[in-house]
Structures are given as structure tokens and as C-alpha cells.
Amino acid sequence: MLFLDLFDITYDFNIDKEFTSRLGFKDVFILGKDIKFSKEKKGYALGIGISRDTKTLEYFIQNKFSAILIEDYTINKKIISDMKEKNIMLCFSIGSIISAYSLERSKLIYKMSKLFDYARSKRINICFASFAKDEKQMVSKLQLIALSKLICSDEQYIKYSLSENLPMLVDTNEK
Amino acid sequence: MKNKIRYVLIESLSEIKNESAFWRFLNQELLKFIGELNYSNVNPRFMGLVDKKRFVIRSDLNGVDILVASLALIKNIDREETAFYTLKTSGTLKALLKDYNTYNNTYKNKASKPQIN
Predict the structure, then answer these.
(1) Residue pair A9/A94 in contact by the 8 Å Cβ criterion
(2) Chain centroid to CA A88
(3) Interface touch B86/A142, C-beta < 8 Å
(4) What is the greatest pairwise CA distance in chain A?
(5) Does A1 fall in a domain?
(6) Given B69, B83, B85, which is nearest A146 (Cβ)?
């Protein structure tokens, strides 16, 4: 488990491949290119659905998106149980911790850790990624693991998630 | 009992102009994110610049995770926007810079190695 190939997901901006390999990732998947994503009630393709609206999240579940990012990280028991039924992954954006400020950041980490605990108790697959919008939000492999440890105390699970769960999103997309 | 330490190789997004001023501002930011109580566990020490963008910080083994996480959260140094990427951690300075040497052939002279205080 020590030398796993780790991956990351970012938004589309000018990413240098040499730079990402220096950060310790085998590959960085780009939203919109490698992985499809939607923020609205549009499309039915497999990909990541990003929203905080309950109805939009329900739409993502009904249309079998492969992963969902709940932007405000509130615990909605119905959404979580539906995700479990349809085997949909839950994403956590580490970049949102970086971009938040002071008390807002602390509240966000608290919400994320509570949602993580609940989702894990329901045995939902979880993926951590930076979802960086620019170079300043990018993090290295070590930083991504260290920041994920604020949410999940199990380092082995974080590494497993970064190495196994993230490529699954790309594979399902290509089918 | 001997304290176990870790050396951390960090890359900055922007170039570092003044070493002492840079460490003073970075230390202030680290203190803010680590917190006064945790600072003693981390015990960060600036080892030196490797080149214009990379530098080495020494930390206690217990606090290295906190150091790495807090470095990711720093976005400003002296009102200048920047970002820090932790490239590698190691128990010895030699092992830390081994990959860097093979990666960047410009770092060959012993004289240009970071000074251990």
C-alpha cells in the first residue's frame, strides 16, 4: 500500500503534466475532458454531478451519475440512502477547504467530517480530490493526504480512495 | 530521548527574493495555521533555499502532517499571492535532495547545499 499510484481531479486550466508528476500524481483527470460533469439538471451521462440543491441531486441519482459532490456537505439521509441503492460515489472537494477563510473553513471541515462519518457508516464509496480551479488551489500528493486526514482519520482508506476510486470515474465514463 | 525529525522539501509558486524576510513571514503564517499550542509539536526550522523556488524545512516527526497541511493553506506571503507544494519528506537531508539532484543537474556543488544550523 506504500507505493500506490495516486490520482487527482481538477477543473480545466493550463496544467503542466511535468508539474503534476512533480507533485506526486500519476495522472490528473480534468473535469470536462477526462470526466464528464454537470451542475444543472442536464444530461444523463455518467460523470460527476455537482450541486447543493436537493432536487438537482435527486436528478443526478435518478440519471445514474457515477459520483456526486454535495457542495454544502449537509447530511440528507434520503439522498445518502438513494446513493447507496444506486451505488453512487460521494466526492469531497479538498480545494474548497483551501479556498475558504478562517471560521468558514473550520465549519466546512466539521460538516465534511460529519458527512464522511455518516456516508461511511452507510458503506458508500468515497473519493477525495482537490477539484482545483487554478494553480493556487492545486496541492501535492502529500498535501492532499494531509488535508484529507482532517476529514478521515484512516490514511489507508484515503490512499485507497485516491488510487482506486478516482480512476473508476474515468473508466465508467469511457464505456 | 532523541527527537525524530523530518526534512520537508517545498516548492513555492513565486520566486523567493529575500531568504530571512521570507522565513519571517512564512513563520508568522505557519503560527497562524498550526496554532500556538501545536507549534511546539511541529517545531519548524528553516534549513535553507535549494534554489529560487525550493526550500527545506525541518520538523518534528509528530507534527509533520500538520506542517504539510498548513503549508497547503498559506496563500499570501507579505501581501504577495503564492502557493506552496510539499514535494517530499525524508529523515535525512541527503535522501531528501537525492531525487532533486537527479531531477535537476544544476544542483551539484556541495557548497550550494543548504546549511544546517
Answers:
(1) no
(2) 12
(3) yes
(4) 43
(5) no
(6) B69
**Going by DSSP bridges, is the β-strand pair A48-51/A37-38 parallel, antiparallel, or unpaired?**
parallel
Over residues A33-55, the mean pLDDT reads 77
Compute the nearest-CA separation of A56 from chain B (Å): 31
Determine contact, residues A37/A48, Cβ cutoff 8 Å.
yes
Q: Decide: B59 and B67 in contact? Cβ < 8 Å.
A: yes
Number of domains in chain A: 1
ipTM reported for the complex, 2 dp:
0.86
Domain covering B5-104: architecture: 2-Layer Sandwich (3.30)
DSSP for A11-33, please give it: -SS---HHHHHHTT-SEEEEBTT
Which among A23, A137, A143 has the least Cβ separation from residue B69?
A143
Each residue's pLDDT tens digit in chain B (117 positions)?
A: 778 999 999 999 988 888 889 999 999 999 999 999 889 989 999 998 888 889 999 999 999 999 999 999 999 888 888 999 999 999 998 888 887 665 554 444 444 455 444
Could you tell me if residue A16 is left (phi over 0), alpha (psi between -120 and 50 degrees) or otherwise beta?
A: beta
- B69 neighbourhood in chain A, CB within 8 Å: 143, 146-147, 149-150
A93's CB contacts (< 8 A; 6+ apart) are A69, A71, A129, A130, A131
In a domain, residue A2? The reply is: no
Minimal C-alpha gap between B99 and chain A (Å): 11
**Tally of helices (H runs) and strands (E runs) in chain B:** 4, 6
B89, A142: Cβ pair inside 8 Å? yes
Question: A138 vs B89: CB contact, 8 Å cut-off?
Answer: no
Could you list the residue range(s) of the whole structural domain that residue A18 is in?
7-174
